[in-house]
Every structure is written in C-alpha cells, then in structure tokens.
Design goal:
This protein is about 75% helix and about 0% strand. By secondary structure, it is mainly α. Helix 1 crosses helix 6 and helix 6 (about 90-125) runs antiparallel to helix 10 (about 210-235). It has ten helices and no strands.
Length: about 240
C-alpha cells in the first residue's frame, strides 16, 4: 500500500479519538494560561522566557498526545488489524509518526504565537522584541512537536501508555527540575531543557537556540528509531 493512504488512515484514527483532541487543546490551554500568569508577575531578567514559561506544562500535554496516539494501537489487538491492512511495518510506523507530528506542530505553532501575543500584552514595555518573540514562538512549536514524537517513539518501545507516562512525566516534572541548576553541565542536554533554550533571551550553557532544538531532535530521532525497531522485531 502506498504511503499516502496509510497516512490518511492514521489521520482518521487521530481525528476520531476525543482524548487526542483533548490533549491538543490542553497544549494550547496550559501553555497560554501558565505563561500569562508568569508574565503578569515577571521581572525583567528574562522577558522572553517569562512569555513562554507555561511550556513546561504544555509539553506534558504534548507527550500525552504522542503517547496516546501510539499506545492505543497496543490495546485490544488493534495493531494486528492495522498490520493486516499494512504489512509493511516500517511504512506504518512512519505514517503514524507523521500523523502525530503534523497536528502537534500545527497546534504548537498556534500555541507559540498566541502565547507570544498574550505575554507581550501582559509585560507591556518590558516585553521582548518581535524578532526575538517570533523566534521563541517558532521554537515553542518545534519543541512541542519534538516532545510529542519523543513520547510516541518511547510508547512504541514500551507498548503501554501508562508505562510511558510513568517514565516521562516524573522525568519532566521532577528529574529535570532537580538537575536543572546544573547549567552548562549534563542537564543542558536533557531533551526538555535543550529544546527550551530557544525560549530564553540569554543562556549561559553550551547550547544556543537552534543547537538546543537540534539536541532535542536527536533524542527524538533515537526514540523513533528504537520505536521503529521494536515494531519491526516484536510480535503484534
């Protein structure tokens, strides 16, 4: 079967699952709401990150989206039916990843620009400039997409939404914060922290805005390769 109809079929699955629409809506709602609260009480030390502070919560919704989109295939024998229609497992997983990436990127970019407008309004005269703000909005969208794909790849390896979320959510909410003060060290290369460098006006670590996103992209690529290998090698 050609790639296009496989992708269309995977998009239908995503479009018809209410939980996935809820996760996408939560990306926008959480990021915008928490960013607005942070911007309303921010100092002038890093106005760009004050605008995008809520991404730490929005990325949790992004990983929930990526996790649910893939883990739903491992419930009730759904994957066996899918592979009966699409025997090429690599093509199916590529279509699934694409079906996750496109809406995550669209919602991520929308979230980035809505958050930028809300944050600039809240900060007033201390708001970041438009060039810096647009960089942050684009970085926000790319980071949220990469985190959704990172979760999708891990879900394909673990074959369980509960297990994937049990690994990633504590990592994002606890581990990353615990080691977060190690700026310039190994903490800068964690997938969530590296991608967020693009959301800072200044950064003292080894990475820049785009090199940070590249590091997150490498983490995501590794997770997707591992997920694709797992789908190919393990029984449905």
């Amino acid at each position: 079967m050609p790639f296009a109809p496989v992708l269309h079929a995977e998009w239908i699955k995503i479009r018809t699952l209410r939980s996935l629409w809820g996760a996408l809506a939560a990306i926008l709602a959480c990021t915008t709401a928490f960013s607005a609260l942070a911007a309303a009480d921010a100092d002038d030390s890093d106005p760009l990150f004050s605008v995008f502070f809520g991404i730490g919560f929005g990325q949790v919704a992004a990983i929930a989206f990526g996790t649910t989109a893939v883990s739903s295939e491992f419930r009730g024998g759904a994957l066996r039916l899918t592979l009966a229609a699409v025997p090429d497992r690599g093509r199916w997983f590529a279509a699934k990843a694409t079906a996750v990436a496109l809406p995550a990127l669209a919602v991520g970019l929308l979230t980035g620009f809505v958050t930028l407008l809300v944050g600039r309004s809240a900060l007033g005269a201390s708001a970041p400039g438009w060039a810096e703000g647009v960089r942050g909005a684009v970085g926000c969208g790319l980071h949220l997409m990469l985190m959704a794909l990172f979760a999708a790849g891990l879900a394909a390896v673990l074959r369980s939404g509960v297990a994937t979320l049990a690994v990633l959510i504590p990592f994002l909410l606890i581990v990353s914060f615990v080691v977060g003060d190690l700026s310039g060290g190994v903490a800068d290369f964690l997938p969530d922290r590296a991608g967020q460098v693009a959301l800072h006006s200044t950064w003292d670590g080894a990475l820049g805005p785009w090199s940070g996103l590249a590091v997150t992209a490498l983490w995501t690529s590794a997770a997707l390769v591992a997920g694709g290998w797992s789908v190919r090698r393990r029984d449905a």
